[in-house]
Amino acid sequence: MSNIEFTQAAPEHVGVIVIGGGQAGLSVSYFLQQANIGHLVLEKHSVTHTWRTQRWDTFCLVTPNWQCALPGHAYDGPDPHGFMKKDEIIAYLDAFIAKVNAPVLEGTAVTRVTRDAGGGYVVQSTRGTYMADQVVVASGGYHTPIVPRMAERLPLGIVQVQSSEYRNADALPPGAVLVVGSGQSGAQIAEDLHLAGRKVHLAVGEAPRCARFYRGRDVVDWLADMRYYDMPVTDHPLREGVRDNTNHYVTGRDGGRDIDLRRFASEGMELFGRLEDFRDGKLRFAPNLRANLDDADDTYNRINASIDGFIEKHGIDAPAAARYEPLWHPPGERAELDLQASGITSIVWCIGFTPDFAWLDAPVFNGRGYPAHMRGVTAVPGIYFVGLPWLHTWGSGRFSGVARDAQYVVDAICAERSNVPDHVRLRVREEA
C-alpha cells in the first residue's frame, strides 16, 4: 500500500475517488490500476481496519477458505476446506494490501460529496477537498450499531457492549451475560461465552440457520455446485428484499460445526424470545421463542432438502439423507426476567447495524435511505457502490464475490469515461 503524504494546498483533481479502504475499496483500486485510471482511496481509519478491530478473539470465517477470492489473490493455503482464524484472515489481507499497493490516504474521513457545476464531484474530507470525475462508495453497509432506547434505562452497573466491541468472556465482568440477537454474531458470541463456562441468557430473534456439513460435504460446497452463489439478486425469490435478511447462523470454529441453540439450552443456556422492553427492573420478552426456533429449523431442513433434490437429479453417490429433529423444546414462553435476580452483569447487543450515507449529497437513495442501483451502478452519472450485501449476488459483501462486482463497476466507469451512450451502456450492464 502506498500511503500518501498529505501536502494539499489547493483542491486536487483526481480521476476517481474511492471511499473506503476495506476489501471492496482495495478491489476497486486493483481494477482501476489495470485500467490505468488515476484514483485515490480515502479511508477513515486504516485499511481493512474492521477485520482487525471489530472481531472477537476466537473469530473465524463461517465460509470455507476456498471462497476467499479477492482479485488476483485467491486463497492458496494448505486448508482450502478449513476456516481461517482471525490472525490468518489478517495475514491474508496483509498480503492482498501489499499486492494491490493502492494509493491510499488513511485517517481521512469523507464529510461531504456534492456535484459541481461541471458534472464532476467535490469531495470534502478531514484532510482537504478533492475534485473527482467519478466516486465509488466502498464503505460497506454496516456503519451505526443498533442499540435500542431501552438500553438507556438499564442500571448503570450493567456493562453494555455491541457485538463489534466484544472480545472474549474474560473481558466482561463476572456474572451472567445477556446476549441479544441470534444472527451470525449473536449465535457465535453466545457459543463463545457458553464454552467459556459463563451463564448465558440469549434473546433469540428470527435468524435462520443451516447445517455445516450434510451428506458428506460442507453445505457451502453443495450450494456452490447448485450455483446458488451465482444467483443475481434479480433472480432471487425475494428480489431486493433479500438484502434485509439476517444471515444464517453456523460456525467454522474447531473445523466447522452446526450451531444448535436447543443443544445449548439443554446444557444450561437460558433462551427467551425477542427482547422487547425493560420496565420495573424486569426484562420483557415476546412469546415467540418456540416459533423462532421452529422457523430456524425449518430453514435448516429446507436447505438440506434442496441438496437432496440436487443429489437425486444428478445421480450423485452420497451418504443417506437425514432430517434434523429437535432435541429440546421450550417448556414454556417466559415473558419476563428479573434483572437483579438473574445475576446478569453485562449485555452484548447483537442486533446489527444501519447504514449511514448522510455525507453523500446525491439523489441515489430510495425511500428507506438505501442506495438504489443496478449492480452498483446508480442512475446518477459518476456515482457507484461496491461492497454492499447482495449488491449483485450473495457474495457481494464477502471475499467470494467482491472481485466480480468491483470489475463490473470499473468496466462501467471506463464506459462512462469513453462517453458510451447511456442506452448502450445500460444494455451492456443488463446483459452482463
SSE diagram, text form:
Elements: E1 2-3, E2 12-19, H1 23-34, E3 39-42, H2 49-53, E4 69-70, E5 73-74, H3 86-100, E6 103-105, E7 110-115, E8 121-125, E9 128-137, E10 144-145, E11 159-162, E12 176-180, H4 184-195, E13 200-203, E14 213-214, E15 217-218, H5 219-225, H6 261-266, E16 270-272, E17 275-279, E18 282-285, H7 289-314, E19 336-338, H8 339-342, E20 344-349, E21 353-354, E22 383-385, H9 402-417, H10 422-431
Parallel strand pairs: 1-6, 2-3, 2-9, 3-6, 9-22, 11-20, 12-13, 12-20, 13-16
Antiparallel strand pairs: 4-5, 7-8, 8-9, 10-21, 14-15, 17-18, 18-19
Quick structural gist:
With about 425 residues, the chain is an alpha/beta fold. The chain has helices at about 25-35, 50-55, 85-100, 185-195, 220-225, 260-265, 290-315, 340, 400-415, 420-430; strands spanning about 1-5, 10-20, 40, 70, 75, 105, 110-115, 120-125, 130-135, 145, 160, 175-180, 200-205, 215, 215-220, 270, 275-280, 280-285, 335-340, 345-350, 355, 385. A hairpin with a 2-residue loop joins strand 14 (about 215) and strand 15 (about 215-220).
Tags for this model:
8-stranded mixed sheet, 10 helices, 432 residues, FAD/NAD(P)-binding domain, alpha/beta, globular, 2 domains, single chain, 5-stranded parallel sheet
Detailed description of the structure:
With 432 residues, the protein is α/β, with parallel strands linked by helices. It folds into 2 domains: 2-143 and 355-431, FAD/NAD(P)-binding domain (3-Layer(bba) Sandwich), CATH 3.50.50.60; 146-352, FAD/NAD(P)-binding domain (3-Layer(bba) Sandwich). The chain has helices at 23-34, 49-53, 86-100, 184-195, 219-225, 261-266, 289-314, 339-342, 402-417, 422-431; strands spanning 2-3, 12-19, 39-42, 69-70, 73-74, 103-105, 110-115, 121-125, 128-137, 144-145, 159-162, 176-180, 200-203, 213-214, 217-218, 270-272, 275-279, 282-285, 336-338, 344-349, 353-354, 383-385. The strands form 6 sheets. Strands 1, 2, 3, 6, 7, 8, 9 and 22 form an 8-stranded mixed β-sheet that branches. A 5-stranded parallel β-sheet has the order 11-20-12-13-16. The chain has a 3-stranded antiparallel β-sheet with strand order 17-18-19. The longest helix is centred in the last third of the chain and has 26 residues, at 289-314. The protein is globular and about 65 Å long. It starts with a strand and ends with a helix. The relative contact order is 0.16.
